[in-house]
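User: Sequence in, structure out. Go.
Assistant: Echoing your sequence, followed by the structure tokens.
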Amino acid sequence: MPHRPMNREQSWLLPPTLDELLLQDHPARFVAEVVDALDRAAWVEMGIDLDGDPLGAPAYHPRILLSVWLYGFMTSVRSSRKLEAACRDQISFLWLTGWQHPDHNTLWRFYKAHRQAMRRLLKYTVTTAMELGLVDLAVQAVDGTKVAANAAGDRTYDAAGLQRLLERTEAAIVELEAQNEGGDNPPPPRLPIELQRTKALREQVRAAMSRLAEHKGVPRVNLTDEDAQLMKGRSGILPGYNAQAMVSPLDPETAKGNGMLITAAEVVDTAADSGQLVPMLEQAEELMGERAQVTLADGGYHTAANLEAGERRGQLLVMAERYQGMEHDPYFKDKFVYDAATDSYLCPQDQRLPFRGFRRSKLPGSGPIRVYCASRTVCRTCPAFGVCTKDTHAGRALWIGHSDGLLRKHREWMHTPEARILYARRQELTEPTFGILKEQLGARRFLLRGLANVRAEFTLLATAFNLRTLWRARKRARGANQVGQQRPCHLEAAALT
């Protein structure tokens, strides 16, 4: 088989245009359409002036800069320096900029000034999907994942560690100042670099100590990123954040295929997921304008407070138990039978646990707890002693709160075939979403520092994820129309308003 001729100095009689170098269904074209479809009110809401200043040198148009950042997040290019390079040697970025080459300083200034306001773009993507009927409102799933912070793990200290570091820093400053004194030479006009850095470290340590003193619930602080907390992930314990996402499936009939849409996104500096369910439900409802019928969540969200919130909101929550398998224990709480006539419980060994009094709950708003306790004499002679309880002082006790009935009802319902079928869908929604975010969009590590900044960064990642979903849905719809479907493609009229 002969080889094709190759000539790197090939010239054209009629040079190709920039538009000819990019495929018609390329995602960069979709990003440009999305940005161009934003009306003036949307730009004003983001605090971006489309008219520019009539004085001074011409500036890059905001449509160019926003398109570059959105497409960069879609293609895992989130660094301003990498974006600068892409705007010089990648056809898709050259097409977006119209062969202009914004440098990294220009790109960074735009991103820094508007990244908080750009979080509103997530709502525009969700609103567009809702208007096009792409979202399946029957079910949604929420989950969290740990994302590493832009911080060194060995720079995390508790109060004692900060005190020791401050003492070492003070000693180093004294030594450095002594080295720069002596003799008749005049003092240098500026402090030596090493001394400047050491004094800056001292101020940083003092500020961290003050932060720990003000926030009693914070056990430690990272000197690189003060908001990052040590969290356990698959790569071990690292300083990071807890990224939350609510995911809804696409309607396979309308979207001409499968897919997911992120309908709520948030980042918190606590490892626990339990307190994030209600805020995520509220944010998803706000962005979609409607409530999903069913919400799927894993055991990390399982609390009585969340179940009560679900009942108040009229939303069915499908959640696994926090501690899997505990209901199979023969002496689990649910195995005790309540006797209303005597206000007591009967244990599996037919021993009675009478009412002993009330205890105050540590959880706010949960009300008093009723305590039922067996005699220690009966428990110590019971053949189940050591399995049912090891308490030699008071015997087996049951703490019954006002939400115990709701917990038991939900536990029983989770064993039904309907609940099992619904819960099986959780992994197919959240796990692929986080996999795409981390593997394809590069969200294994935040590039920014500080809770407010990483929230903006993760929201833009979610926006980029949704843009990919909408682009694929339109591509499938166009393909379906081209093979002979007569129904008009609603995605052709997609516009963010």
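User: And one key feature?
Assistant: The first helix runs from residue 27 to 37.
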